[in-house]
Amino acid sequence: MVFATTQWTQVLQARGDSPEAKAALSELCDFYYAPVFAFIRHNSFNEEAARELTQEFFSRLLSGKGIRAVDPERGRFRSFLLGAVKHFLSDMRDHDRRVKRGEGRTPLPLETRIVDAHTISPDREFDRKWAFTVLDRSLARLAEEKPEHLDILKPWLTGDSKDLSQADAAKQLGMSEGAVKVAVYRLRKRFRELVKAEIAQTLNDPAQVGDELAALIDAIR
After folding, report:
1. Cβ count within 10 A of residue 170
2. Is pLDDT at 23 greater than 80 in this prediction?
3. CA distances from 3 to 6, 114, 199, 220 (A)
4. Quick one: CA dihedral 167, 172, 178, 184, positive or negative?
């Protein structure tokens, strides 16, 4: 894979000032909308408030605020974004407290839900949503390539094949079971390539792809 033109590298090189960098940042933000919303929602905001805060966060990010201070050596857009949204929520809480003090009211914490000890943490939910977003986008790209028999063989890509057998799939397709095994192998190989390509777009160091892939697998377990 070629890493010199990844989206995150474009953003870092131009700090978001060029049209190409702005377009790359916009696409990355679209990619990460669901993980950021999940993180904010799991910080005890109701759905409507979480959606408004998510929109505000990305609006500020796309305006260029915060990008210029990014350290290129940090490498991962995922790490930068998670830190940025935590900082954003901290600023919003401080603003809320200042407003309430100015009105002579006792400031109330923005977190209002009682969080069960066994509930998944916001950081883990962010990673989980990120992982499933990567997989969904990769599967959509695979579908665009229109490989043969994808509709029938897709369960072997998504882990939904527990109640299915490749012998049954072979009967549906009029193929031998051996041919189905080969087709599944090829689909898995291409799917993995597409997953790695999606991950690579959020990095500026090719050496980190393996670590991010491991993080993705850990997040969906």
Report:
1. 18
2. yes
3. 5, 44, 11, 26
4. negative
State residue 114 phi and psi, 5-degree precision: -85, 120
Q: In this structure, are residues 195 and 142 in contact, taking their beta carbons and an 8 Å threshold?
A: no
Q: Report domain extents, the chain.
A: 7-220
Interatomic CA distance for residues 123 and 25, integer angstroms? 22
- Residue 91 contacts residue 54 (beta carbons within 8 Å): no
Packing angle between helix 19-31 and helix 47-62, nearest 10 degrees? 160
pLDDT given for residue 63 in this prediction: 87
The packing angle between helices 122-144 and 177-200, to 10°, is 120
Q: How far is CA 21 from the centre of its chain?
A: 19
Q: What is the DSSP code (8-state) at residue 46? A: -
Q: What is the pLDDT of residues 103-117, one digit of tens each?
A: 555 444 444 444 444
pLDDT value at position 113? 44
The residue among 221 and 40 whose pLDDT is bigger is 40
Average pLDDT, the chain: 85
